[in-house]
User: Fold this.
Amino acid sequence: MTAPEDSVAARRAGQAGALWAGFAALVCAAVSRFEPVWLEEGMLVHVAERLASGEALYQDVSAFTGPFPYELLAALFRVFGPELWVARGAVVLLQSLACAAAFGLGNQAGSPWQGHGAALVVALSPLLFFPFFSIFYYVTVAVALTMLATYAAVRGQKSFVWAAVSAVVVVSVALSKQTLGLALAGTLILTWWMIGSRERRLAPLAVFLAVAVLASLGVIGIYAVRGEFTLLVKSLVEIPLSLGDNFHVSWINFWPLGELSLGHGSELLYLPWIYGTTFNFFSDTPRLLIALTQALFALPFLAVGFTLFQARAGRTPQAAWFTLAALVATMTNLYPRPDWGHLVFVLPLTMMQLWLVLGPSLVPSRGFSISWRGFIWLAGPLVLVSGLMGALILRAAVPTDWGPRIPLWSVSHQNRSLALPRVVEFLRNRVIPGEFIFVARSEPLIYHATETRNPTPYSGVIPGGLGEQEPSILQGLKLVDFVVMSEIDQPGYTYYRDELPAVQRYLERNFEIPEPFLESASDWVVVLERVADRGPAVLDLVEIEGEAKRWIRVQGIEEDGAVPPKMATVHNRRPVAFFLGEEGGGIDFVLDLPERATLEADVGFPSLKSEDFLFEHPTKALITASVSLDGGAFVPIKRWRIDSIRGSILKERHPMRRWRPIRADLSPYGGRKVRLRLEARAEAPGRPEMPEMSWLGSPRITVYGNAVRPETIPGVK
Assistant:
């Protein structure tokens, strides 16, 4: 082309890129009114609010990813105020820039039509992979910056300025998600070296390396001057390395189609988000959906393979090599946890790469009409699937009241339930802005919704990551009257009680669940409210249950009972479970009782084989505490009969909906070695159905006078 033709082409490309940026902004903005993400988005918003108020990252606030997204959002909060729309507005801007960069990459790879196809993929990503590309999250930021860095690298072959820009953006990616940034730097440098001619290789690459090193040293220098270099290394290197095993999930199998053969983890991790959150997670997954999921996981590898195959024929444009470098870098996001939430950040570049490599055969360069018809092969399916996704989102979306600071509509089952609105409303009616609360598990956006503060450095539990988090959280809990906690402490891979056993004991000793959260089935997350100190446990029977003997009774004969699978902490109590025979069962502890010993525990009614039997026929459970001395006969100390009728122990078809406290005076046996027997038996005359399992909640031995809970309670005699 002549210079004027180059100028006209550049102007048209710039106009087209701007139009695509505007379209991407509209799509992202339209999606941004839906679905708060209480963990990932909440973590970034919560930490940025704390930084905007004057706290220092890594010193006052713990994190194990780079500082760029936190500091960027904190700066925006200082200017525009700490509001959720500011965070989502920043994502809209980043998404529009990434879309413009995608158009530029496609245009550089061959023709404007390849640019249009690449831009369309990125522009529709907030719909195709909802909600991950509309929330402010460090991976969302890192992937958008990856697109910008790749475009700048392509332009950097001819321009030192663009080479320098690419270096700065690559460093920003590394400061957002360490592994992605390091991988991107390596793949871009390798690509630059392999495909560039001598005059386009050495000098621009030297500029790239020099600026990248200087930018990195500048960041390190800032932390070194502040005396926080060691803390930076710990946060960005040591903690992430320690977390690898906790988040590891086995790789998805690609064959046989329609089946998931997994070693560790759950097939739910591999299914599209929209399926799990708008349909029933626990229903039988359609084989076709599983096969589609397998195909999507295979797609990045196919894109790499097609590119290398095309390269053998010499038909791979230089820009496509750079997008391949970006794709390979983003694929590191699939390790060590290749679940759907990580795959979505790989798929846009995957689809772009396939289009840039295979698109020329679908979009001939001669004639607008022919090119337009070829473009339809990409645009048609993308628009159709995006429209379907939009319809599913709108079909599921409902307005939800999370308070004025979360003005979003809910889409997922989790957000459409009344659980989180109840938590937010309960807290907003009982705390003042700036008051300390503690969100124990994984919903840090609650701090933002309730305008409360976190007395600990942690926006969530770091599994196996920090030994000092337990004493820090214990210190912070002294300042709070309310703790937000999952009803059932059973995340995918760790238990709160295992990570922070002293914190769990403190919560049991000082907090109870308020009545409003015991009256509804929509309480997967609850509030714990401070009550009078129950006193210390001299013997925690949960901690020594492995030494206890379980037994069942069948036709008057006691037999050894199997050890039940590990059970989740439920409603702030750790269950000690045992199986039941036809005539009941129990668990025996050998204990050295202290003087003035008291047994404290909570009881829930055993689950039954037939829910219909459970509700149509009033049933009672007989709970007994007995003591044996020197291997002699067991002497009953106390019995409790517990009604299982609706409105008593069982609430709304949930056998562990609420615990009931029980106490027994063991002081006559104080100072002696005893065998303590705790047993359960159902009383259901004339009915063959019997309980399968029973459990006690956090049984413990305390010293008389420490227990403060009431003896007279509904449903317990």
